[in-house]
């Protein structure tokens, strides 16, 4: 199965990935995790991405696309059960690039899961988490960037018939059950 997780920062995508991997055997690519690993390792790529991440802006297109191309080609060859993208695509240019890439490797998406959570709940969650980019000003900017650049993808994937909405509030277990129902329907 080939899955995209779509939702605002802090909507719980990362939190649900382990349960999805355990049940469906998909491999995962999380651009946020990949970028944080580059920053931690002090690479050139990490040095370029860090100011954007600290400000809650999207990292430059070429950096993210390069990471995705490498990760996805390897996964598509090594994992027959498919893959799940967490945090990518984040805007229309990334979505179109992903379509092109998946068409080239003959692995189109099966489903886009959209996590629906209101913004005040997200601010509360992220202030409680306390990662380096989880201060209130950066969180509010991440939400502005999400609204302007990422939210249009809800329409984009609805038009392609791929979007399934999942209510992202409630216990982690309840949300897992909703995700499972949506994924079982296309598995
Ligand atoms: P990400 O790493 O993708 O964002 P995130 O805030 O971790 O979101 P996620 O939805 O995974 O939240 P989580 O499960 O952890 O991005 C960080 C930055 O990287 C971006 O701002 C950007 O700069 C850069 N970036 C990433 N991808 C990019 C791309 N494609 N292009 C350009 N730039 C990119 O949940 C958050 C918190 O909520 C946790 O504390 C969790 O415990 C809690 N929580 C989860 N579910 C809950 C529930 N049901 N109830 C209560 N709390 C819950």
Q: How is this structure best described in words?
A:
The protein is of the alpha/beta class. The chain has 2 domains: 2-26 and 81-186, P-loop containing nucleotide triphosphate hydrolases (Rossmann fold), CATH 3.40.50; 30-80, no CATH class. The protein is 61% helix and 13% strand. It contains 9 helices and 5 strands. It has helices spanning 13-24, 31-41, 44-55, 61-78, 92-104, 119-129, 136-150, 152-159, 172-186, and strands spanning 2-7, 27-30, 83-86, 111-116, 163-167. The chain has a 5-stranded parallel β-sheet, sandwiched between helices. α1 (13-24) packs across α9, α2 (31-41) packs across α3 (44-55) and α6 crosses α7 (136-150). The longest helix is centred in the middle third of the chain and has 18 residues, at 61-78. The mean pLDDT is 94. The chain binds BIS(adenosine)-5'-tetraphosphate. BIS(adenosine)-5'-tetraphosphate binds at residues 7, 9-15, 31-32, 35, 52-53, 56, 58-59, 64, 87-88, 90, 94, 125-126, 129, 142, 172, 175.
């Amino acid at each position: 199965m080939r899955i995209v997780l779509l939702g605002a920062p802090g909507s719980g995508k990362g939190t649900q990935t382990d349960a999805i991997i355990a049940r469906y055997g998909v491999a995962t690519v999380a651009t946020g995790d990949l970028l944080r690993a580059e920053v931690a390792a002090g690479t050139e790529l990490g040095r370029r991405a860090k100011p954007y991440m600290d400000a809650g802006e999207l990292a430059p297109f070429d950096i993210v696309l390069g990471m995705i191309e490498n990760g996805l080609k390897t996964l598509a060859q090594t994992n027959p059960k498919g893959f799940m993208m967490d945090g990518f695509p984040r805007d229309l240019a990334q979505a179109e690039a992903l379509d092109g890439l998946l068409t080239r490797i003959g692995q189109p998406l099966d489903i886009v899961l959209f996590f629906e959570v209101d913004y005040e709940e997200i601010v509360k969650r992220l202030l409680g988490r306390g990662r380096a980019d989880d201060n209130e000003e950066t969180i509010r900017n991440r939400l502005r960037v999400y609204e302007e650049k990422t939210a249009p993808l809800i329409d984009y994937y609805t038009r392609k018939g791929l979007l399934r909405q999942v209510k992202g509030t409630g216990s982690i277990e309840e949300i897992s059950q909703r995700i499972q129902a949506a994924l079982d329907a296309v598995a």
